[in-house]
Amino acid sequence: MFSVAAPHAKGKCAEDNIFAANNRAIALAEKIGNDQVVNGTVGSILDEDGNLVVLDVVKEALTKLSPKEICAYAPIQGYRKFLDDCIDQCFGESRPEGYIDACSTPGGTGVLHHVVHNYTEPGDEVLITDWHWGAYDSLIDDNNRRVRSFSFLTEEGHFNAPAFKEAVEDILKNQDNIVIILNGIANNPTGYCMSVAEWQKAVDILKDAVADGRKNAILVPDVAYLDYSGEKQECRKFFKVFGGLPKNILVVCAYTLSKGFTMYGQRMGAMIGISSDKDVIKEFVDINQYSSRATWSNCNSAAQNAMIHICEDPDKIRQLDEERARYFKLIQERASIFMKEAREEGVKFVPYISGFFITIPVTNSQAVCDDLEKQHVFLVPLKKGIRLAVCSISREKMKGLAHKLALAIKAAGARQ
């Protein structure tokens, strides 16, 4: 094939198996009826009738925006009130000790792009968990960095601290900075949540690894599903472990409005930096603002202003919390139905605590998903298993799904 692309770009393709499976599910539903199709691919909350959930408090805020609030350019860093609201919404009552500031980004994806681009060098390895959102690979590869993964969970189903320690120490033998993307809260795709003690262990490992001051560690907690990971203040307690760290450890929280504010397509989020050193945070804002100007320039004004209007009104914040809690409960009920039936069917799944997804570890995942599609069930094949979106399947459609999955695993000759 003739190509005019630069060498680093040749052969890249943005085809995504999640969107491909979703498109097939939508097409079939239009043909035979939505009630005949189980679409477990969508990483968005759907109600019991299969409609996209947009929180009422968010809908109201969006409809009341003025043309100027919708259309005017936002500052490159983001509106100051928006950034402060992101910090408050992210940490709640568990704001860590230290200097904290933020920059607006187009969703959590923008956070990951900037951290990889600004805190590693071409050819460096970026550390992620083996169970991870597939776009991590593309974000790292497109920046001419290399993916390095470690086994996220032990056989007993807990954070694998020894594997994390081994990977961190090995990477730091060859490079000055290590970036770790750790989606440890309502993990996509497993739904596992690290405990406060497990987050503390991860931080302690980093402190030991850079104790001589010659190397730097940049930890990126991806908290996309934070607001559906547990009780509002309880699930945020782990943020406290990021306070008072040595100045050569920078924590950058990848915060997004996609899930917590159900503004998926508005592409709005913020990178929130935490450091014990004032200069590190000033540099954080300076270099990431510069990269923003050099990539997407500035971010969505409408989404920022909608959040500002919600967060300036205590009654609207209460409504926001109540709506989130209601959908958290719904997702938990759906997950409980599947897990109960999966245990009865002998179908294994990765330990699930909360979040949008459950993962079924299995070989030959594509063949299993192909068989399920013959039964009008659409799930997402992964390298080591299958992702089931409990956020998008109604309680009624969840019933019997584990049985269909058990039959498909057998038909495909797959193993767990």
TrEMBL record:
Belongs to the class-I pyridoxal-phosphate-dependent aminotransferase family. GO terms for biological process: amino acid metabolic process. Its cofactor is pyridoxal 5'-phosphate. SUPFAM superfamilies: PLP-dependent transferases (SSF53383). The lineage of its organism: Bacteria, Bacillati, Bacillota, Negativicutes, Veillonellales. Pfam families: Aminotran_1_2. InterPro entries: Aminotransferase_I/II_large (IPR004839), Asp_trans (IPR000796), PyrdxlP-dep_Trfase (IPR015424), PyrdxlP-dep_Trfase_major (IPR015421), PyrdxlP-dep_Trfase_small (IPR015422). One of its GO terms (molecular function) is identical protein binding. Homodimer. It comes from Dialister succinatiphilus YIT 11850. CDD domains: AAT_like. It comes from the Bacteria. This is Aminotransferase class I/classII large domain-containing protein. Keywords: Aminotransferase, Pyridoxal phosphate, Transferase. Residues 41-405 form the Aminotransferase class I/classII large domain.
